[in-house]
Amino acid sequence: MMYVGIDLGTSSVKILLMSKDGGIVDEVTEEYPVYYPKAGWAEQNPEDWWQGTLNALKNLVSRNTEVKDHIKAIGFSGQMHGMVALDNMGNVLTPSIIWCDQRTTEECHEITEHFGAKGLSDLVGNMALTGFTAPKILWLKKNAPEIFEKVDMFLLPKDFISFKLSGNYVTDYSDASGMLLLDVANKCYSQPVLDFIGITESQLPNLHESFEVTGQLSEAIKAELGLSHEVLIVGGAGDQAAGAIGTGTVSEGVVSVTLGTSGVVFAAHDDYRVDSENRMHAFCHASGRYHSMGVMLSAANCLKWWSEQASVAEIDDLLNEVDDTISEVVFLPYLMGERTPYPDPNARGTFVGMDMNTNRKDLTKSLLEGVAFGLKDSLDILVDMGVPVEELRVIGGGARSIKWRQIIADIFGQKIVGINTNQGGALGAAILAAVGDGAFESVDAATKAIIKTVDAVEPNLANHEIYKEKHLKYKALYQSLKPYFEM
Description:
Layout: E1 2-8, E2 12-19, E3 24-31, E4 43-44, H1 46-63, E5 71-78, E6 84-86, E7 96-97, H2 105-115, H3 117-124, H4 133-143, H5 145-148, E8 153-155, H6 157-166, E9 170-172, H7 173-176, E10 182-183, E11 188-189, H8 191-197, E12 206-208, E13 213-216, H9 219-225, E14 232-234, E15 237-238, H10 239-245, E16 253-259, E17 263-269, E18 281-284, E19 290-296, H11 300-309, H12 315-321, E20 330-332, E21 350-352, H13 360-384, E22 389-395, H14 402-412, E23 416-419, H15 424-437, H16 443-450, E24 453-457, H17 461-485
Parallel strand pairs: 1-5, 5-14, 5-15, 9-12, 16-22, 22-23
Antiparallel strand pairs: 1-2, 2-3, 4-7, 6-8, 10-11, 13-14, 16-17, 17-19, 18-19, 20-21, 23-24
Helix pairs in contact: 1-6, 2-3, 2-4, 10-15, 11-13, 13-14, 14-17
């Protein structure tokens, strides 16, 4: 039995073929563009996603003809929050306003003013952010009413691909949690928010658990792919939830820390929990539980930026300079503003504490520490919320550096572990497909069989005590500079 995981990213779609035991048989990637028509705007053409996905699927099947008849189900992972607007014939009406678009600041203020910050959190579990879907729909209503009036269905990016493959309008609870339209606690659309935005539930996809079967591959697509047997379509998940499945972060007590372009601290828990100050996202999880998530907008890309400024071609050359000395310099990693713990688009990156003896090594070390402090801020919020933290899994491109992993362990004061795969969302999507097909009785059982922990790093507790003091300076520095950021 074989399972397909489709991971619809921002710059490319990655499609993975997985055997029942979790082995990666093959993977294919197709790229597509992002368009920036104005400052702060970011759009994509959903048809680019579709052509990329279809081409990748055709390539995957043609390269694996000996096992194509064993493909049982397809699951999905995808960039969250993007707005896909379709007419009553299923045609795309306008470019998709994607997750990183910043045009909806005014609409976020309108939503928050109407409901109040606490009132909105009570309804949908989250605060209004420019990345979320509801402000985008409100923007469309105000700025392109002639298009808004024609919209029959609003979909999320991965669900557009699911629609093209099956003909069904569906989404899952994890991805829908990022729309600002879902009552996350009760797993249903929030009628008060829908009324304010000016849409009806009939314009939104049907809700499912991530591991539920939502349809079948259509006859037309099967013919294009050269398949003749039934292939199930399984709900899938938003990219972070699917990535958490791909790392085994599915049950209470396990927390994943992602050192990617952005930084994410992700915790699963059995019950619905909301941070009283709205610093964490409160979303449904793909395992059927809930999750809390803190997001740093700049993590490993801080190191990429620094390597460019330092004129160092290879990032590893910078990392190799770093020693065990704790830097006297403090770095705030807010190169693109920040989301957690400070939802502050005006925050900026800063080096503080340099003198004539400061060298490149010191600045590199302070940068690694600064990102780790930002991740620790999210972990501390989880602890304040009463979320148990029994195991920390560090993943992402930055996690390949043993020195960075050691810094994180020292700052967190806890052992951290890696995992035996780096496939992330695509693997999570394939695992969800396997669960939907009945190959495993649950998401928990599937991840237990497939995902293994490796490469444990123990904290240096003496360093941890020093870092506790430096973390206080780090937090005080943001508060001191906040008035400057707002000027």
